[in-house]
Amino acid sequence: MLAAVVPMITLVVLIGGALALFGLAALDGPVQVALVLSCAVAALVVLRNGHRWEELQASGQRALSSVTSAIFILLAVGALIGAWNMSGTISTLVYYGLLVLAPGWYYAASALICGIVAMSIGSSWTTAGTIGVGLVGIATLLGVSPAITAGAVISGAYLGDKLSPLSEPTVLTAQMVEVDLYAHIRRQAWTSVQAFVIAFVLFLGLGLWFGPDRVPTVGEDVELARLGEIFWINPVNLLPLLLLVVLSVRTAPASLALLAAALFAGVLGTFTQPGVVAAFVDRPGLDPVRTGVIAVWDAVATGFTMNSGLADVDRLLSRGGMASMLLTLWIIIGAVTFGTILEEFGLISRLVVPMVAAAKSTGRLFLTVFVCAFGLNVVAGDQYIALVLPARVFRVEFARRGLAPTNLSRLAADSGTVTSPLVPWNSCGAFMAAVLGVPTLAYLPFCFFNIASPVLSVGYGITGFRIEKAAPAPEQTG
After folding, report:
1. Residue 43 — pLDDT band, cuts 50, 70, 90?
2. What is the reported pLDDT for 10?
3. Of 194, 259, 362, 373, which residue has the fewest beta carbons closer than 10 angstroms?
4. pLDDT for 95-143, tens place per residue?
5. Domain boundaries, position 264
6. What residue ranges carry the coiled-coil annotation (predicted)?
7. Number of structural domains found in the chain
8. CA-closest candidate to residue 422, choices 438, 445, 388
9. Which three-class secondary structure state does DSSP give residue 469?
10. Residue 108 in 3-state DSSP?
């Protein structure tokens, strides 16, 4: 037990110290160092327990292999943000958004829009990295809170992610608990719909109460005019977004769909925004073909930058590039490696098994699943570990107690999936902070859906509401 606890204590002390000393800037390097040092302590504990260094190396390789897809999605999102800023796609979304969205219902509308998009394409990450970026940008120019908007974006994105049959975490949860996918989605709706209604009402209240009183730093008419002067604002600029939606609905791999939408936007921008492209490259006398190639390459690699004379506009559009995701990748690699070592060498199981034995009632069992899943999001840094391990550990216990597996699939999703963006060093929390440009701890209090979902799910277990029964599994002997 002591060997299992030491790496956990190390992680808590180092990350807590980093946040205390550096504040939100801790995510720019100090937290990453804390994760790497925690990996080293976990490795020493494993070696002391009699394992060989070669086994640790193999575990680390499996950890990196498990996040290969996430790494390429992150790089593709960085490329997409840079290319969409240069091509006018983000500017067009912002321009039209400023025309039609009012502060009073802006937060609620943002949550609803992201919920619909995420349900259509089955990806919270893609939704946040595209529509979410535009909505947070509009919030900045509209004079409402980017942090509350980010909370609304994440709330909507995770509602759609949970209820979409195209979502990887949703499919994985159903497979791990061995329930029908659509049965799992229907049971998730019992908590997800209620949680989103709560979130929607709160966002509407915040918008009506605070939104109209916010005064933009510059006039909206000035911002709109400036965007219209710099970019050719036209629905044609939204074609990259349409391409991404089509590819996502046709279940193309996420990283390939994002890269295709990024490259298409870059090429489109060389024709629709020649002045912007020429100013970005800033090489007078260069022919248009070479200028376009350099612009697309640079926007995809290191992001797009511009100087419009309006600070808010420049902050909105001077972003993106694969390079902007490197700090986030550093967090993910450290967190997932730490979590994999703890899982594969039995340190997590040593802590979880006594918790299962102590959960005598159904309510305490539900609470234990939540603590386990959320705790894994904190210590393992990856939502997939937070889904897979509780599903493996608690599936037999739910069957032994005569609880239908759909109870566990709903609870695991409510506890593991939706809480992952609330942890700054979790892969989901790091991703959301990177693409939305809002620190995790700043948007966390406003992720109403992500907070309400596990509360409702655990509440069901305590009260017995919506708890489905099954024939108890026979006790295994021998």
Report:
1. very high
2. 92
3. 194
4. 888 787 778 889 999 999 999 989 888 889 889 988 898 899 888 888 8
5. 68-324
6. none
7. 1
8. 445
9. strand
10. helix
